[in-house]
Design a protein that fits this description.
Oligomer: homodimer
Order of helices and strands of chain A: EEEHHHHHEHEHEHEEHEHEHEHHEEHEEH
CATH topology of the largest domain in chain A: Rossmann fold
Low-confidence stretches of chain A: 1-43, 380-386
Largest sheet of chain A: 6 strands, parallel
CATH architecture of the largest domain in chain A: 3-Layer(aba) Sandwich
Number of domains of chain A: 3
Shape of chain A: elongated
CATH superfamily of the largest domain in chain A: Response regulator
Helix content of chain A: 40-55%
DNA sequence: ATTCTTCATGCAAGCGATTGCATCATTTTT
DNA sequence: AAAAATGATGCAATCGCTTGCATGAAGAAT
């Protein structure tokens, strides 16, 4: 790629010729330019390689490689020399070369709907805490709750040779055959938060049933009787589980379950119109409490309430899943169900890495269920500042 | 790595022997196991390579490679055949191999303090929007406002052969020599939001001066006269610029600048104690307005106010930098300065990619300044629901 | 007809690291 | 003393892809 060279233009086709390099009118010895360009490339990140060390120490590259990896074949003495020299020249193994040779990249892919979502960013922190310790890198992608985007990202990651995948499905996703394909080809996958049925692998979720039960029960115990339920796409695993928790609490207190009080949001609250519509449909039923089943929906619903019906916004008790650390700032205030996001990330990562590093195919899979925490609304606070 | 083999234990040293493989008591022909293991590795991600295509089509790998890359040397006919076949077998170039050969990875590193911060997650969305289009991958790392972590992450990324780096410095960072080193070695770097002085490269920032001026002026025009300023680490570029904007607004309205009304938070509000301390020191000065200069500080300060001095929290007017999309939910409500986060990400990425792909060293650098937006508090809303 | 261009393709050398096996000197065992 | 085992190291192939250059055929220019 000798940019200093004029390439001759072919008279016939008017395209640039190849194999013919001109400097002015003279054919020139290419070496001059090639060497220059090569040097430029070499200079860029002039890091020492195993070869350099080998040459400097009068050893072979294999010996150096083995010494660096602390293999038993190499004598202690040699190891010491190699290690010392490597340290001196600040040698870093080229991870790309290693990946090529070892057919793995020491990186794991993460797919979440939005990193801006508190729950997911906390999960990611959990993932990183484990991954970095075990010397894995993480590559984060966002699906923005779109199936198409999700699939694209996963395939992009797969082509980048990730060693494993951690994924929370988008609210749109129904068809996970593309994941099955990759899984069948040997890509370890661990699902978290939003997990599919009929997919035999490790999964990590919050105790959605209990979280919902607790939140709903809390509303009931505060005297609410007409409790609506605003929730995510019907297809998501946690939507179902949370609905069950809600129902169970109603049952326990002998409150009749009314399907019309349940509203699903296909896009998980990505569009505010969706939420406003749901709120609009719900209000005529005069709910005195709403239980909301996801982070984005919770904040979105309060916003929608405030925007469309400010006069009732403060009269309806709200309990919802959210990992926002700003809940205390919200007005109207609410009771929140916090998922153990950080831990979910940690556990999922541990499972994934165990799969990646397993010597032989795994046949036993677990679904880990971690408890949620109910953070009750500070009652007085809520009123004092109203 | 033939795991099916028992390695004989050396009687002398009690270590496992090498070069000697046993199956039960018999020395066995190693090939059997090696082949098996190789096959397992092969099977994992059984993707077709250029070699496979070449063999199937009776061409050389060079021709296939060139055809796939649409080089002019190859005839249209051959290209068509190769492309069709590649499509058929769903060929994907191995990016690792390509990276090794080309000495670049087609990925760019991002360092932010927290992805959970709305500003940064929006920046990241902007970065992705450009990067993915140009076929670059992004790798996100968080410094958590720690210098040590930041340096570690940058070096980790660099060793992963990123092609370029987008970075917003942590609030702790003072010494950027490690970045200078990498830059000198040829790593393109673009700074955004928190940029260093004396570093000749592209930078992208918000118009911090004007943003601060506007916010402060807004407070003044609402009748406030004792306006405190809560801000980030004194060393950050935007801290200085925002302070200047604040001062300029005071000057314009003939309000005396009082240094004691300015409080710096070294850790950018990562520790709530830091904020509570600042609030505690500020309140005795009886401010009737506070201008806060960063996302995390803004929310953190309101929280601290509410927690420590709920009785005054609603009496002090607050204006602050924040990109939170939940501002409308906050109580007390506030006036916010929104940075053009998405655009900052886009512009920074475009600049970075232009550096990466530049044919020759760049000597002219730009600092792009994008305008902020002032979102005024909804006055009635603020009161009606109090 | 001869020489020069133009086109199309293949050869082979890397990129940096890993690793099976050969080699050889040195024990240890029989 | 001969045979076997051990210990330390090097050779060379390989991962998948890119690319400078050689090659050889066909067409154009002289």
């Amino acid at each position: 790629m000798p940019t200093d060279l004029t390439k001759k233009v072919c008279k016939r086709s008017q395209k640039r010729c190849f194999n013919v390099y001109l400097l002015g009118r003279f054919r020139i010895p290419k070496e001059i330019f090639f060497v220059t360009w090569e040097q430029v490339l070499k200079m860029r990140f002039e890091t020492s390689t195993i070869k350099d060390i080998a040459k400097a120490l009068g050893l072979s590259t294999s010996t150096v490689s083995r010494a660096l990896r602390d293999r038993y074949e190499i004598s202690e003495e040699t190891k010491k020399i190699v290690l010392a020299y490597a340290e001196k020249v600040n040698y870093r193994a080229n991870p790309i070369a290693r990946s090529l040779k070892e057919r793995r990249s020491y990186s794991i892919g993460i797919i979440v709907s939005e990193i801006a979502n508190n729950f997911f960013s906390q999960v990611i922190n959990g993932i990183e805490s484990i991954a970095y310790n075990k010397d894995y890198h993480v590559i984060i992608s966002q699906s923005h709750e779109s199936y198409k985007q999700e699939k694209l990202n996963v395939e992009h990651l797969a082509s980048r040779s990730i060693d494993g995948l951690l994924i929370a499905l988008s609210s749109e996703t129904q068809d996970i055959d593309y994941l099955r394909d990759l899984y069948a080809k040997g890509l370890p996958i661990v699902f978290f938060d939003r997990v599919p049925e009929n997919f035999e692998t490790h999964k990590v979720i919050a105790n959605n049933f209990k979280g919902s039960f607790d939140a709903t029960e809390h509303l009931i115990l505060s005297g609410k009787r007409v409790i609506a339920h605003l929730t995510n796409s019907e297809t998501l695993s946690n939507t179902k589980e949370r609905l069950e928790g809600y129902k169970a609490a109603l049952t326990k207190y002998h409150i009749e379950f009314k399907p019309e009080l349940v509203k699903y949001c296909q896009h998980g609250g990505m569009h505010s119109a969706e939420l406003e519509q749901a709120v609009k449909e719900l209000l005529p039923l005069k709910p005195d409490g709403i239980f909301i089943s996801s982070d984005r929906l919770t904040t979105g619903c309060i916003l929608a309430l405030k925007n469309t019906n400010p006069e009732v916004a403060h009269k309806i008790a709200i309990a919802g899943f959210t990992n926002s650390n700003l809940v205390e700032l919200f007005s109207p205030s609410l009771t929140s169900v916090k998922q153990p996001a950080f831990e979910i990330g940690q556990v999922a990562t541990e499972l994934l890495i165990s799969m990646i590093e397993a010597k032989r195919p795994i046949t036993e899979f677990e679904t880990k269920i971690l408890d949620t925490e109910l953070v009750r609304m500070k009652k007085n606070l809520g009123n004092r500042f109203l």
